[in-house]
Amino acid sequence: MSVTVIDHTPIGVLPCVPCSAVVRLATGGAAIVAISRGRRLVSKLWVQMVTLVVVGVAGFAINSFHGIFGSQDITKSSGNRFVIAQFNPKNIKYEVFGDYGGWGRVSYWDVDSKPVEVNLTALPWAHIETTTMTTATADITAQAAGGNIGCRITIDDQVRSEHTARGDHAGVWCQVLSA
């Protein structure tokens, strides 16, 4: 008795006889082994099935890690509404004082940290910037032809920086890094 194996295995892949093979007896005492439809379907779709399982396991793992590493949104209040804490705006006051002497200039940072340059026509000079940001940087540089000059930065009526200078064409600088 001879056995003929019909296998649809691609070239280069080792053939095997599956357990689910249907054995048919042919005339003349020969046995024919055929691969089942289910086996052929699995051999065509195994990559997609493995990918689906990997994506499912990865999704479950990522969801589990969210709870472990504290990435839940804990800023929610009852009713799932954010509570916005009210705060007062900051008033940054720049002041320049001293002897004018005929000319002078001032350079300061606005609330967006952009430089602004002003040519003075008289002293004292003052300018107020208002911001609702939680922190700001204030910086002013002044120079005048007079014998002395001073600058002052006041945040919400508190003097935070004040300097003076003396001499011909004196220059002065004041800065507050965290207003």
Description of the structure:
The protein has 179 residues and is α+β, with helices and mostly antiparallel strands. The chain has two domains: 3-56, no CATH class; 90-176, MmpS1-5, C-terminal soluble domain (Immunoglobulin-like, Sandwich). It is 18% helix and 38% strand. It is built from one helix and eleven strands. It has a four-stranded antiparallel β-sheet, with no helix packed on it. The chain has a four-stranded antiparallel β-sheet with strand order 6-5-8-11, with no helix packed on it. A three-stranded mixed β-sheet has the order 1-3-2, with no helix packed on it. The chain is rod-shaped, with a radius of gyration of 41 Å. The termini are far apart. The relative contact order is 0.13. Residues 17-27 have low confidence and may be disordered.
